[in-house]
């Protein structure tokens, strides 16, 4: 972006990173995010609060980006127009986090996650409408398959599903969809406005804004309490490392390989969370859920294998 405040030209998909390395990194990010949820559950069980987790994971990530930039001798703010746009995107991320947690409080977790994971579809639509990036035919083909696989893996549909017997909150549905739309908008604006920024600067500004917004709201609510049990702090440390690593890769890798055509890979997160819960927490898994996971993985492989095709 120039000093005059004009939008940075959108990054070209695949211009700086080959298909498979980028895909594998995003799959690893999905696993990090799902492991982050398990760490968060551990921390919450021992007295940590959601707001504290949000402030810590965002604030520590911003601090680590600043340390890395300082070590490289590049710790300086970009031009004022770019900084303002980065802070706006950070505000969207903060609002998205709030909406998603509020949705989870009102809906079954599986349904809230399924609605939220429509964000790649919304991103493709927003990118096309704003001419930021045009999703390929293969991307449109994959998205419904991924959502169907997620519905199976999350137990929303399939054998043994009790979703039909669960009363759904309209406000919860609206909040989950708002979270998806806000995240899609943040990803689109990252490509449109911040595509030329150093990934560390981009991540640091976004996370600093999120930490400040959530921290201020938490202080006003009086909800920024510290846990007394040491196990909660271990959980907070682990979720901070996992989330910080994952979100840094998202805002570093996705703009380089194309947001609209690759964000669907992040839909691996709920499926990998189910696998980790089965492996680490002794949670049960039905055959229909396992089939849903296979379907999601197959769709991601299909998407990645056709990265250079229309």
Structure overview:
Helix 6 (137-153) runs antiparallel to helix 12. The protein is an all-alpha fold. The radius of gyration is 19 Å and the shape is globular. The model is unreliable at 1-16 (pLDDT under 50). It has one domain (19-305). It is built from twelve helices and no strands. It starts with 18 loop residues before the first helix and ends in a 5-residue tail after the last helix.
Spell out the blueprint of helices and strands.
Layout: H1 19-45, H2 50-71, H3 80-106, H4 109-116, H5 119-129, H6 137-153, H7 170-194, H8 199-221, H9 230-257, H10 259-262, H11 268-280, H12 287-305
Mean pLDDT: 82
Unreliable stretches (pLDDT < 50, length at least 5) are 1-16
Helix proportion range: over 70%
Structural class given helices, strands, pairing?
mainly alpha
Integer-rounded radius of gyration: 19 Å
Q: Per DSSP, what share of the residues sits in E-state strands of 2 or more residues?
A: under 5%
């Amino acid at each position: 972006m120039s000093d005059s405040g004009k939008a940075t030209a959108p990054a070209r998909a695949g211009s700086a990173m080959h298909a498979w390395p980028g895909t594998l990194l995003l799959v690893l990010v999905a696993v990090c995010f799902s492991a982050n949820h398990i760490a968060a559950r551990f921390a919450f069980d021992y007295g940590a609060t959601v707001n504290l987790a949000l402030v810590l994971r965002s604030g520590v990530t911003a601090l680590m980006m600043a340390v890395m930039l300082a070590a490289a001798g590049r710790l300086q703010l970009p031009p004022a127009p770019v900084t303002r746009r980065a802070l706006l995107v950070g505000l969207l991320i903060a609002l998205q986090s709030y909406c998603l947690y509020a949705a989870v409080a009102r809906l079954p977790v599986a349904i809230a996650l399924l609605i939220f994971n429509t964000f790649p579809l919304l991103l493709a639509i927003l990118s096309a409408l704003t001419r930021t990036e045009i999703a390929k035919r293969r991307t449109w083909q994959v998205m419904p398959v991924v959502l169907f696989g997620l519905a199976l893996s999350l137990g929303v549909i399939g054998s043994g599903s009790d979703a039909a017997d669960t009363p759904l909150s309209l406000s919860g549905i609206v909040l989950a969809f708002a979270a998806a739309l806000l995240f899609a908008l943040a990803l689109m604006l990252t490509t449109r406005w911040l595509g030329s920024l150093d990934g560390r600067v981009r991540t640091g500004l976004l996370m600093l804004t999120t930490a400040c917004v959530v921290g201020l709201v938490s202080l006003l609510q009086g909800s920024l309490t510290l846990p007394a049990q040491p196990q909660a702090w271990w959980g907070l440390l682990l979720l901070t490392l996992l989330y910080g690593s994952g979100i840094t890769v998202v805002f570093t890798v996705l703009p380089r390989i194309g947001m609209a055509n690759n964000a669907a890979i992040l839909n691996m997160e709920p499926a990998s969370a189910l696998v980790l819960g089965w492996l680490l927490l002794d949670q049960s898994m039905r055959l229909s859920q396992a089939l849903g996971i296979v379907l999601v993985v197959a769709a991601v492989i299909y998407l990645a294998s056709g990265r250079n095709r229309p």
